[in-house]
Design goal:
about 290 residues; MetI-like fold; globular
C-alpha cells in the first residue's frame, strides 16, 4: 500500500471518530483499559494486607475507597484488569476462528457437508451456554490459564456466530464475481480468501467485539460462583467478596467495594458496543457516507 493511500485511510478514520462522539468515547475508554491492564500493575502497588482503615470513602489517596480489610480497591481493579481483558481477547479470537471456518465451509460446500455441520451447530444451540461452561470448567477441576479458559468458552459459544456467517456466505457465493472466479478455474480456497472473506470481515470484526462482551460476562460469572481458582484481584471475586464477606448489600460503607468492579464491567461493555459501531462504519461505505 502506498503512503498516500495510508494517509487517506488515516484521514477517514480521524473523520469518523471526529464526527461520532460515541465512537470516540468507546475508542478512548478501550484504549484506557488496555493501558491500565498493560502498565498499571507496574505503577500501582497492591497490598493484600490492609494498611489503612476499612471502609474508607473514595479520596485522592484511594480513588475507589478501601474494602472491609482496609485494602485499596482501585489497586485491586488495576491488577485484575489484565486477566479480564486477556481472557476476553483470547476467547473472542478462538471463537471467531472456529465460527468463520465452520460457517464458511458449510456455506461454500453445501450439500451433506452443510447439513452435517449445521446439525452439529443446531445441537450446540439447544444447550444453554453458561451452564455447560460451568460443567466443563468443573470437569477440568478449575483453571486460571487464559488460553484454556478461552478454548472452553469457544467450545460453548461458536455455534451462533457460525450459523450467522454461513448465512452471509450463502448470500455471497452466488454473486457474479464468485461465479467468474469459478469459471476461471480458481480453487475453493482462493475464492474463500479473496472473494468471500474480505466481504464478511466487517461482520466478523463487529462480532469479535460482541463475543468479547460475552466472554467478560462469563469470566466474571465463573469467578462469582467459584468455578475458577480464587484470585483476590479478579473482578468477579471482588463482587463475591463484597456481597458475602463485606456485606455490601446491608452495609452502606461497603458499597464502593461492590460498585467499583460492577461499574468497570459496565463501562467496558458500553465502550465495546460503541467501538463496534465505529468499526462497522469504517468497513461499510454506506454508513460512512451517512
Amino acid at each position: 500500500m502506498k503512503v498516500s493511500e495510508i494517509l487517506r485511510e488515516i484521514k477517514v478514520l480521524l473523520r469518523i471518530y471526529a464526527s461520532s462522539k460515541s465512537s470516540l468515547f468507546g475508542l478512548t475508554v478501550v484504549i484506557g483499559y488496555i493501558i491500565m491492564a498493560a502498565i498499571g500493575p507496574y505503577f500501582i502497588r497492591l497490598d493484600l494486607i490492609g494498611l489503612d482503615k476499612p471502609y474508607q470513602l473514595p479520596s485522592l489517596k484511594h480513588p475507589f475507597g478501601t474494602d472491609y480489610l482496609g485494602r485499596d480497591i482501585f489497586a485491586q481493579i488495576v491488577h485484575g484488569a489484565r486477566d479480564v481483558l486477556l481472557l476476553a481477547f483470547i476467547a473472542s479470537l478462538i471463537t471467531v476462528a472456529i465460527s468463520v471456518s465452520l460457517g464458511t465451509i458449510a456455506g461454500i460446500k453445501g450439500g451433506k457437508v452443510d447439513s452435517c455441520l449445521m446439525f452439529i451447530t443446531d445441537m450446540m444451540l439447544t444447550i444453554p451456554g453458561f451452564p455447560l461452561l460451568i460443567v466443563v470448567t468443573s470437569l477440568i477441576k478449575g483453571t486460571s490459564n487464559p488460553l484454556i479458559l478461552g478454548l472452553i468458552y469457544a467450545m460453548v459459544s461458536w455455534a451462533s456466530p457460525a450459523r450467522a456467517i454461513r448465512s452471509q456466505v450463502l448470500s455471497l457465493k452466488r454473486r457474479d464475481f464468485v461465479e467468474a472466479s469459478r469459471c476461471m478455474g480458481f480453487s475453493t480456497l482462493y475464492i474463500i480468501y479473496f472473494d468471500i472473506l474480505p466481504l464478511i470481515m466487517p461482520y466478523v470484526a463487529v462480532n469479535l467485539l460482541l463475543i468479547m462482551i460475552g466472554a467478560i460476562y462469563s469470566l466474571v460469572g465463573l469467578s462469582l460462583i467459584g468455578a475458577i481458582p480464587w484470585s483476590e484481584c479478579n473482578w468477579g471475586i471482588m463482587i463475591n467478596v463484597a456481597v458475602n464477606y463485606a456485606g455490601a448489600l446491608s452495609v452502606p460503607k461497603a458499597l464502593p467495594h461492590l460498585i467499583a468492579p460492577l461499574g468497570m464491567i459496565i463501562l467496558l461493555q458500553v465502550a465495546l458496543i460503541m467501538l463496534s459501531r465505529s468499526i462497522e462504519m469504517i468497513f461499510n461505505p454506506r454508513l460512512r457516507e451517512r
